[in-house]
Design goal:
Blueprint lengths: L15 E4 L16 E4 L7 E6 L6 H13 L1 H6 L4 E6 L3 H11 L6 E4 L4 H5 L3 E3 L7 E3 L2 E6 L2 E7 L10 H7 L1
Parallel strand pairs: 3-4, 4-5
Antiparallel strand pairs: 1-2, 3-8, 6-7, 8-9
Length: 172
């Protein structure tokens, strides 16, 4: 992983991400949805929890990282979090499919960061080419308040600690 290029107190750099907003039409898995673009500009005036996984449907991400965020959704809302989003290098269709399998509905937004371009520009990507996965988003979490970074941590190892739901809740 590259060295971190952002820190607490910085304004979040602008990013545009592919996403497929949840609609009831997607609930029965018979439709794929149409990707749209979500910009970090839409987070102005909002408290955002952004967490990153190296890949949708991968063991740690699918079992240990994303589910606690959904399970603790009401706790995040009680701490005035406006937006919870998960980001990965997967395409918007994969991210939307993963969100539907996990039951996210409209509670957690799934964002696509192709080739980890945005994350990489912040020093938050990891090269997993040796495993055949290419460049991915690192496992990290941020709290962003009115576009200012209040918390940013990258996992030091393979598990979920500093980027997990409990760690982030403790920093809100």
């Amino acid at each position: 992983m590259a060295s971190l290029k952002i820190s607490v107190g910085d304004t979040i750099p602008k990013g545009d991400f592919g996403t497929i907003p949840f609609t009831e039409e997607l609930a029965d898995q018979s439709a794929c949805g149409i990707p749209t673009t979500l910009s970090t500009d839409s987070w102005k005036g909002k408290k955002v929890v952004l967490f990153s996984v190296p890949g949708a449907f991968t063991p740690t991400c699918h079992v240990n990282h994303l589910p606690p965020y959904l399970a603790k959704y009401n706790e995040f809302k009680a701490k005035n979090v406006d937006v919870i989003a998960v980001i990965a290098a997967n395409d918007p269709f994969v991210m939307s499919g993963w969100g539907r399998v996990e039951g996210l509905t409209d509670k957690i937004i799934t964002l696509s960061d192709p080739n980890a371009a945005w994350s990489g520009s912040l020093g938050l990507s990891i090269d997993l080419s040796g495993r055949g996965f290419g460049v991915r988003t690192a496992r990290y979490a941020m709290i962003i308040d009115d576009l200012v970074i209040k918390y940013v941590e990258v996992e030091p190892g393979l598990g979920v600690t500093v980027s997990g739901a409990d760690a982030v809740l403790a920093k809100l």
